[in-house]
């Protein structure tokens, strides 16, 4: 039985920041960035 695309995306694990391990907020989870806002703000560019 095939899973619907909506069900597939609902079952994905929460996105986690590789720097601090914090779960990334829902509005940022759709971003291509991997780090959370807090870790990104600490980074020097």
Q: Any key phrases for this structure?
A:
45 residues, mainly alpha, elongated, YhfH-like
Describe the protein:
The chain starts with a helix and ends with a helix. 36% of the residues lie in helices and 0% in strands. The model has no long low-confidence stretch (mean pLDDT 83). The longest helix has 6 residues, at 5-10. It has a domain at 16-45. The chain has three helices and no strands. With 45 residues, the protein is an all-alpha fold.
Give the ordered list of helices and strands: HHH
Radius of gyration: 13 Å
Tell me the span between the first and last alpha carbons: 47 Å
Tally of contiguous helical segments:
3
Biggest sheet character: none
- How helical, in percent, are the residues? 25-40%
Summed over residues and divided by their number, the pLDDT gives a mean of: 83
Principal-axis shape: elongated
Give the structural class. mainly alpha
Spans of 5+ residues with little confidence (pLDDT < 50)?
Answer: none
Strand content: under 5%
Number of beta-strand segments: 0
Protein name: YhfH family protein
Pfam families: YhfH (PF14149)
Strand and helix layout:
Blueprint: H1 5-10, H2 26-29, H3 37-42
Summarize the structure.
With 45 residues, the protein is an all-alpha fold. The protein has three helices and no strands.
């Amino acid at each position: 039985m095939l899973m619907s695309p909506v069900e597939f995306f609902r079952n994905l694990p929460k996105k986690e920041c590789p720097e601090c391990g914090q779960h990334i907020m829902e509005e940022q989870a759709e971003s291509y960035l991997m780090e959370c806002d807090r870790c990104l703000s600490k980074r020097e560019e």
